[in-house]
Design goal:
Layout: E1 2-4, E2 13-20, E3 23-24, H1 27-36, E4 45-52, E5 55-58, E6 72-75, E7 78-82, H2 92-103, E8 108-111, H3 116-125, E9 129-134, H4 138-150, E10 154-159, H5 161-175, H6 180-199, E11 203-205, H7 210-214, H8 226-235, H9 237-249, E12 254-256, H10 262-269, H11 284-290, H12 296-300, H13 306-309, H14 312-322, H15 328-337
Parallel strand pairs: 8-9, 8-11, 9-10, 11-12
Antiparallel strand pairs: 1-2, 2-3, 2-4, 4-5, 5-6, 6-7
Length: about 350
């Protein structure tokens, strides 16, 4: 991660990293590009907030924070363009591998739950990983088994009910009465971000976006219009990015999702919608790629989302009842009002 030029006197500031056509650009290259053409960041990939003279640019999904809307170019405070690079068409596997390689630098870790999304990222990134869960949780077992099979260094963080309650209070303060799903995800992420801060990792790779791109949610099996359901959920991704960014930044780290690299998004959206799910097997194209890089049983394993596999959702339900609330939403509202 780069933070440069904040007090350099030339108005240049870069937070994050920039790439074009699968190659990271140095700070000097970025400076040269924006000096020659202030609209150049419209074609930048990566995860960044960039300020140069009276201009700003922020990455497409807003993964890096900054005083400008996500995916915009501004001049003098007015939006004058969008940041939406169009990488050359690529097959899905090549797109995913490039996206992971661009992000898997030194001082980077991986949030690993053991599911195919994070397992593929961890195996290809070859960086230290962390798995979060209650003692003897499903995610602990699956992630550590995957790590052993692939030779990945993985630390298991075991959390307790009082720690989950503390994380929920923190999340309520950060997000302001979040809905139960967001609260349970963010509470799980708190432990990942806290671990990253303790270990000195300013970037943590995640598997976010894979379910929306490849048809991973169980509810997709029942939907009468899979294409419409996918589009609805994909449009929600920027909001999810903002949630995750709020948690990560409070611990001085950043969550970096390779599946939201625009070359991966383009390759996924080029797939025929019916090819995403066969029978009861969801995310089939992603699993097909994954089985060439991780053991077959992990590529094809069904797994619940991390807030469920970690045991944190059940713990939140118990906490709600213990505090006299029939519904988790009521409990979260009470925490936000404290």
């Amino acid at each position: 991660m780069s933070r440069t030029g904040a007090d350099g006197g030339d108005g240049f500031y870069l937070d994050g990293w920039v790439e074009r056509n699968g190659r990271r650009l140095s700070e000097k290259e970025v400076r040269t590009a924006v000096s020659a053409d202030p609209f150049a960041p419209a074609h930048f990939g990566g995860e960044f907030f960039l300020r140069y003279r009276e201009w700003t640019a922020r990455d497409h999904f807003g993964i890096r924070d900054g005083p400008a809307p996500a995916g915009t170019l501004t001049c003098g405070g007015e939006v004058v363009g969008t940041v939406c690079p169009a990488p050359p068409p690529d097959d899905l596997e090549a797109a995913i591998l490039t996206a992971i390689e661009l992000r898997a630098t030194d001082r980077t870790a991986v949030a690993l739950s053991g599911g195919v999304d994070s397992a593929l990222v961890a195996a290809r990134a070859e960086r230290p990983a962390v798995v979060v869960g209650l003692e003897d949780s499903h995610d602990h077992h699956l992630a550590l088994s995957l790590a052993a099979a692939c030779g990945i260094e993985c630390e298991a963080v075991t959390v307790t009910m009082p720690e989950v309650e503390e994380a929920l209070r923190e999340v309520a303060g950060l997000l302001g009465a979040p809905n139960p799903v967001d609260a349970s995800i963010a509470a799980t992420e708190v432990f990942v971000a806290r671990w990253a801060e303790d270990q000195g990792y300013p970037r943590v790779l995640t598997g976010q976006g894979a379910d929306e791109l490849f048809g991973g949610y169980a509810r997709y099996l029942e939907t009468p219009n899979l294409a419409a359901a996918l589009e609805h959920d994909r449009l929600d991704l920027p909001r999810q990015v903002a949630r995750d960014r709020a948690v990560a930044s409070s611990y001085g780290t950043a969550f970096s999702p390779p599946y939201l690299d625009l070359r991966v998004v383009a390759a996924a959206r080029a797939l025929p919608v019916p090819s995403l799910i066969k029978g009861k097997v969801r995310k089939l194209p992603l699993r097909t790629v994954a089985e060439r890089h991780i053991p077959y049983e992990f590529a094809m394993a069904e797994k619940k989302a991390m807030q469920y596999g970690s045991g944190i959702w059940k713990t939140i339900q118990k906490l709600a009842r213990r505090n006299g609330h029939r519904r988790v939403g009521e409990y979260l509202q009470a925490l936000d009002g404290e």
